[in-house]
């Protein structure tokens, strides 16, 4: 890795963002971490923590001053403005947290592609990191596992390739600090195809307990997951149901971990490793 100027990490309190901060610090980079709530962010003392909100680009001016490289958490509504401000502030390299569904006709509900386009149309050197499903989505089931040793979800036969957030972050950090990543798109999942039922067994093994898996019907899923305060409205639930339904028994269609292995020069972390790293969350 080369010596870099200051690196701004947006989304720094996120599941991936925190790991990006940690990885950059481990590599000896000067890190500035963006959050809307510095008081409660719990970021490492070695990072310079600054307040700012990606939904309010004007608030980002202090965070961008003196920054050379930037990790961008995707917020499509303001991406164009944020990227223009970054360019003006002197940022030269940007690594975008995108998603494997970027640009797919049906599926890019999160709006990854508009963020990528805003970056492509800038003069910045860019790399897009497009992970598939995060292993960390399992943390949504942690309360049920802790309290009742139970997981309730639809399509338990859906096949996934859960990806460890630390691998996503290490790929992003490599692209931020290393050479040869400009104009590259890294699309990847975890190293193994696993049904949700198989994943449940692996989490159970990590905590030494059996996890009961209850398959919800689509109607029950809407009843249990609808929560407007968390943005899980019925349209999002329908989208997830389509996504999970389309991968029941479907092997060989999700991106594998080859890009992680190419960039990091080692195998991707397994889901068993993720479950062991997070065992305390489920005990
Ligand atoms: N879950 C998956 O399977 C999956 C797969 C592929 C891609 N993705 C994408 O990955 C991203 C999530 O990454 P992550 O897990 O690292 O992050 P995260 O845990 O969702 O949180 C990122 C942080 O960014 C800040 N933030 C979030 N929304 C913001 C907004 N609209 N404006 C300003 N700041 C905002 C928040 O920090 P503060 O409150 O501290 O400001 C938050 O803690 C999402 O874009 C998601 O679509 C997810």
Please tell me what the overall shape is: globular
Oligomer: single chain
Number of strands: 11
Estimate the mean pLDDT confidence: 95
The major pleated sheet works out as: 7 strands, parallel
Pick out the low-confidence regions. none
Distance between the termini: 38 Å
Characterization of the model:
With 283 residues, the protein is α/β, with parallel strands linked by helices. The chain folds into 2 domains: 7-131, Rossmann fold; 133-162 and 190-251 and 269-283, Rossmann fold (3-Layer(aba) Sandwich). The chain has helices at 15-26, 61-64, 79-89, 112-120, 142-148, 165-177, 196-207, 218-225, 234-246, 258-264, 271-277, 279-282; strands at residues 7-9, 31-35, 48-51, 69-72, 93-97, 125-131, 150-153, 159-160, 184-188, 194-195, 212-215. It is globular, with a radius of gyration of 19 Å. The model has no long low-confidence stretch (mean pLDDT 95). Bound molecules: NADP nicotinamide-adenine-dinucleotide phosphate (NAP).
Indicate the topology.
Elements (H helix, E strand, L loop, with lengths): L6 E3 L5 H12 L4 E5 L12 E4 L9 H4 L4 E4 L6 H11 L3 E5 L14 H9 L4 E7 L10 H7 L1 E4 L5 E2 L4 H13 L6 E5 L5 E2 H12 L4 E4 L2 H8 L8 H13 L11 H7 L6 H7 L1 H4 L1
Parallel strand pairs: 1-2, 1-4, 2-3, 4-5, 5-6, 6-9, 7-11
Antiparallel strand pairs: 8-10
Helix pairs in contact: 1-6, 7-11, 8-9
Bound molecules: NADP nicotinamide-adenine-dinucleotide phosphate.
